[in-house]
Design goal:
The complex is a heterodimer of chains A (201) and B (251). By secondary structure, chain A is mostly beta strands. Chain A has a single domain, classed as Oxidoreductase, molybdopterin-binding domain (Sulfite Oxidase, Chain A, domain 2, Alpha-Beta Complex). In chain A, 8% of the residues lie in helices and 31% in strands. Chain A has helices spanning 61-65, 94-101, 180-183; strands at 23-24, 46-51, 57-60, 69-77, 82-93, 109-114, 119-123, 133-138, 141-142, 152-154, 167-173. In chain A, strands 1, 4, 5, 8, 9 and 10 form a 6-stranded mixed sheet that branches. In chain A, strand 4 (69-77) and strand 5 form a beta hairpin. Chain A is globular and about 60 Å long. The relative contact order of chain A is 0.20. Residues 1-10 of chain B have low confidence and may be disordered. Chain B has 251 residues and is an alpha/beta fold. The longest helix of chain B has 13 residues, at 142-154. Chain B has 2 domains: 28-121, Translation factors (Elongation Factor Tu (Ef-tu), domain 3, Beta Barrel), CATH 2.40.30; 133-250, Rossmann fold, CATH 3.40.50.80. Helix content of chain B is 17%, strand content 31%. Chain B is built from 4 helices and 11 strands; from the N terminus they run E-E-E-E-E-H-E-E-H-E-E-H-E-H-E. Chain B is globular and about 55 Å long. Classes of the chains: A mainly beta (201), B alpha/beta (251).
Chain lengths: 201, 251
């Protein structure tokens, strides 16, 4: 252990919800997108699921809203070390979209892509079973543009760069295809509890 | 079959910049060699990192402090120094009110202290020195941009580079003494006699876009999220292609 002289740190709080190396950002919700925030209206938004599926399909804003509503209440964790507790997102479970397109048994991974061209790589197993959403509400209000509105992917059990803002689609693959940050040295899976920040972690 | 996705809108993410593919997974000890006050709120910390692998201007590192009971705090910081092969890197840190890590640096740290660093990290905001660079920053957002200015100067690069930097006042302009003809400061609260006071605006950005070099500018925007949103919109409005604007937002 490499102790830093004179460093005591914040008061220790026993917080079982805080993954290793993270701190509680409190009321802050930092914005870290690398590109210009797009001026994307709900009428121009669409969401597509394709790749290794039986029935590729594109949903409009209204068609996506016709699916059963689903909410996430819990925590989110950013690779830059902040975590945010007790957030509430509203939208539709990704399972509802996947049920329609029927993934092939050969599908193991996915690339989520944004209306800006941003991409994120995910194992398919992290997107199914009630673990992922297409979210358009935050705290009961429309999701703000700088946080990915009108709609973003939400995969809260992984570092938040996987939760692509301005989500445009998910392509199912039979292999891992690195996305924007994965190509820039970040981890293929990004599990905060195993502190998978960078490739090699 | 997978169809190729074409964004229906006119915005896009800039392409990636090639950085070393070597993954910096190991923590290294960094010994504090020098402390240099820049402004009332910002100080530069120079570290000896003997095995530092080198970096590109604009990259950042992860820094970790460890308490006696094993508690650690880690933060990402942009690198302020140019890559110079000296085995040293410099960070310039704002003193953030109640900041756990920046607070230690500004109140406790002294030469000889050791911390741990890991990096360099991320290639997205890096400038390899190979393309004209239009740098736009505010406050401590100037830190990674200064690495680019210093790199440009120390290597004697001839590729065009301009810096547009916003600060509250001349006293709060970090690196003020180092800037040259490449830099245009914008003061938001107070300025020397004869210099206008106000927020960065189209009037500051337009002349730089009008003097676009062959091949156009690669724009690098760094600052708070509020500033980054404002400045990136000014650039788009002035005609800078949206897929050539790279943004580093300080959270």
């Amino acid at each position: 252990m490499n102790v830093t002289r004179g460093f005591t740190g914040r008061p220790r709080v026993s917080n079982a919800g805080l993954p290793p190396g993270q701190y509680d950002a409190g009321d802050d919700w930092p914005v870290l997108s690398a590109e210009v925030t797009p001026d994307l209206q709900p009428a121009d938004w669409s969401f597509r699921v394709d790749g290794l599926v039986a029935q590729p399909r594109t949903w409009s804003w209204d068609e996506a809203h016709a699916l059963p509503a689903s909410a996430y209440e819990g925590d989110i964790h950013c690779v830059t070390s902040w975590s945010k507790f007790g957030v509430r997102f509203g939208g539709v479970s990704l399972d509802a979209f996947l049920d329609v397109v029927q993934p092939h048994g050969s599908a193991t991974h996915a690339v989520a892509y944004s209306h800006t061209g941003y991409t994120a790589a995910l194992p398919l197993a992290d997107l199914t079973g009630g673990q992922a959403w297409i979210a358009w509400e935050y705290g009961g209000e429309p999701l703000a543009p700088e946080h990915g509105g009108p709609a973003r992917l939400l995969v809260p059990h992984l570092y938040f760069w996987k939760s692509a803002k301005w989500i445009a689609g998910v392509t199912l693959l039979d292999h891992d295809e690195p996305g924007f940050w994965e190509q820039n040295g970040y981890h293929a899976r990004g599990n905060p509890w195993q502190e998978q920040r960078y490739s090699g972690d | 079959m997978t169809e190729t996705f074409a964004p229906p809108t006119r915005f896009a993410v800039p392409g990636r910049i090639a950085v070393s593919t070597q993954t910096e997974a190991t923590w290294q000890t960094a010994a504090l060699a020098e402390i240099r006050r820049e402004t009332a709120h910002a100080t530069t910390f120079r570290f000896a990192v003997p095995d530092w692998p080198g970096h590109l201007p604009g990259q950042h590192l992860m820094l970790r402090l460890t308490a006696e009971d094993g508690y650690t705090a880690q933060r990402h910081y942009s690198i302020a120094s140019a890559p110079d092969g000296s085995g040293h890197v410099e960070l310039t840190l704002d003193h953030i009110e109640g900041g756990e890590v920046s607070g230690w640096f500004h109140t406790e740290a002294r030469p000889g202290d050791t911390v741990e660093v890991r990096g360099p990290l991320s290639g997205f905001f890096a400038w390899p020195g190979d393309r004209p660079a239009l740098l736009v920053g505010a406050g401590s957002g100037v830190v990674p941009l200064m690495s680019m200015v210093r790199h440009h100067r120390s290597r004697g690069l001839t590729v065009p580079l301009r810096l547009l930097v916003s600060a509250r006042s001349p006293e709060e302009l970090i690196y003020a003494r180092e800037f040259g003809a490449e830099t245009t400061p914008v003061f938001t609260r107070s300025a020397p006699d004869g210099v206008p006071v106000g927020r960065m605006a189209a009037i500051h950005v337009a002349p730089l876009l009008a003097a676009r070099p062959p091949g156009g500018w690669e724009a690098y925007v760094c600052g708070s999220n509020g500033f980054a949103e404002h400045a990136s919109r000014l650039l788009v409005a002035a005609g800078q292609p949206v897929d050539r604007i790279r943004i580093e937002r300080f959270g």
